[in-house]
Please model this.
Amino acid sequence: MEIIGNIIKGAINIKEALTPEVNPVEAQQKVLQNLLRTAKDTMFGKAYDFEAISKADNPDVAFVNSVPYFDYNQINDKWWSKLHEGLEDVTWPGKPSYFALSSGTTGKTSKRIPVTDDMLSAIKQAGIDQVTALSNFDLPAEFFSKEAMMLGSSTDLKEKDDHLEGEISGITASNIPSWFKGFYKPGEDIAKIEDWDKRVETIAKRAKQWDIGALSGIPSWMELMLKTVIDYHKVDNIHEVWPNLQVYTSGGVAFGPYQKSFNALLGKPVTVIDTYLASEGFLAFQARPETDAMQLVTDGGIYFEFVPFKPEYINPDGSLKNEAPSVTLKDVQIDQDYVVIISTVSGAWRYLIGDTIEFTDVERAEIKITGRTKFFLNTVGSQLSVNKLDDAIRHLEEKFNTTIPEYTLCAKRFEDGFYHSWYLGSESLNEANNSIANALDEFLKNANKNYKVARGKALEGVKVEVISPEIFAEWSGANKKKGGQVKMERVMGEDKFKDWEAFVAKN
Model:
């Protein structure tokens, strides 16, 4: 197997050496032209005259001036719903082979996002590019002969009319290249098990049959799987089961809040590589070890725009105001949060994906996910994004020498005014709630001037409850289902928070 590893590593190194560097700005211009020309004869393309846009002196400007922003509800109600009526050539030529079911965060109603064959090809190419970038990480040859555990949603896709439906991780796993199937675990039979608990239990039983070198999946669900394997085999850490585990490919959410609790499950350090695979496409991946930022996939099937993440551009429900300005890669700046807007080979146009990012390196088009537009906590002027909330959690972990893998909060009205009411998921946080609340409050006042101003006015303070992290997973299971792309909402509105508090009290 070491010979195989050397061959694979050598091939990757050769491909990396022969692949020309991509100029992100030029690549994006080509992607936009390809999107416009390919979709010009669709219903959408005709409605917005893509042919004229593609021939304009500045197609990117003409595109912005002609096509409005769309969130899921807007594009689905006006356009994608026609696909379910049997129409084709709606927002992309033909009909999509798949629909990705996604609620983004836990929720009972799934979005149905088209996934075309062109998008699957783009995702596969981005995956190949990511594998090629592993040559930058100085991994030993033996790593490339080990197996990879991909923990996603079920690959038992549901047939509906003339397409298949499932979560994006299940769709991509069911379309892995044939050459990779020998490395892929838990294998097709286990991956098709719909019940997440049963699937993870089966993984635990068979775990020692596999020589796992890499893990891939959303951190919260990966942690639960690893704990199940560790408990089943009565060992202290996962390396006692998989001694050759060297790489964890994270995705879906920022890894930072999970880092300490994840590392506690290991017997030795692993290389963590961040990725950004959403239901709408493969947006970015970490391409080099010098940074934990991710490089946008600028030469694939996605055209990017960015709206400065400022309160005056965001509606209360997290959608964009029509007058919000967008910029392209050539005009972005560091130290500025942006709302991500994408147009894709699946027929999404100027689509609000719901995530916010910041650029860490403009020339390389490298980014970090900073949160969700709906998770922006601006009640009574506090203006806290998820990255600031994550920073506060890491501060608590360091201050109290603990791990807090999950949390959620709400700006809630009590009898004496508004408080930020936090629920922290931790098994080892034993401080008094008021001490934790004071530490949170002081950190946020020092870290965010708007929060400090709000604390001097309408925001009375912070309240904290510490609960088992398992309750967060059970909430996800009760509201949708476990595993896959389901992510815990970090900030809730008051109505949702009432349901959450009732659920916590019951559990």
Residues 56 and 178 are 43 Å apart (CA to CA). The longest helix spans residues 2-18. The domain at 377-506 is CATH 3.30.300 (GMP Synthetase; Chain A, domain 3). The chain has two domains: 1-373, 377-506.
